[in-house]
Design brief:
single chain; 123 residues; alpha+beta; two-stranded parallel sheet; two-stranded antiparallel sheet; 43% helix; elongated; F-box domain-containing protein
C-alpha cells in the first residue's frame, strides 16, 4: 500500500508539513513523497521567496544562471506556484556593480529577468 492509496486525514498532512515549515529540504522531500503531500508542501516552500543578486562570474568560468532566471523558468513551467507566493524579499538591492558598459548600477536594474518575473505574480 502506497501513501497515494492510503488516505491520511488532511489535518494530519497539514500538521506534518507545518512542523517542517522551517526545514526546506524536508519540505522538498515531502513534496516528492506523494501527491498527498505535494500541494501543502509547495504552499510552505513558496510562501516566502528571497530573490538574490546574480552570482559574479569569475574569469574562465562559464556564466551561471541567475536566481531570477531560474525562478522565472520555474513559474513559466508551473504557473500554479505563483499563487502560493505571499512574500517576496529582495536581497542586496543596494549592491552596485558595473554593467557591460562599465556603468555602475544596482543589480536589480541590470537583471533583465527580474522585470519578466513581475507579471508572474498575481495581484
Amino acid at each position: 500500500m502506497t501513501l497515494d492509496t492510503m488516505r491520511l486525514p488532511f489535518e494530519l498532512v497539514e500538521s506534518i508539513v507545518e512542523n517542517l515549515s522551517d526545514d526546506a529540504p524536508s519540505l522538498r522531500a515531502c513534496a516528492l513523497t506523494s501527491s498527498t503531500f505535494l500541494e501543502t508542501s509547495q504552499r510552505r516552500l513558496f510562501d516566502t521567496l528571497v530573490v538574490t543578486p546574480p552570482p559574479c562570474n569569475q574569469a574562465k568560468k562559464p556564466p551561471r544562471i541567475s536566481p531570477t532566471t531560474k525562478l522565472y523558468d520555474l513559474l513559466i513551467q508551473s504557473p500554479h506556484l505563483s499563487n502560493y507566493i505571499h512574500h517576496l524579499r529582495l536581497e542586496n538591492v543596494g549592491v552596485v556593480t558595473a554593467n557591460v558598459h562599465g556603468i555602475n548600477t544596482h543589480w536589480i536594474a541590470q537583471d533583465a529577468d527580474f522585470a519578466l518575473l513581475l507579471p508572474c505574480f498575481p495581484l
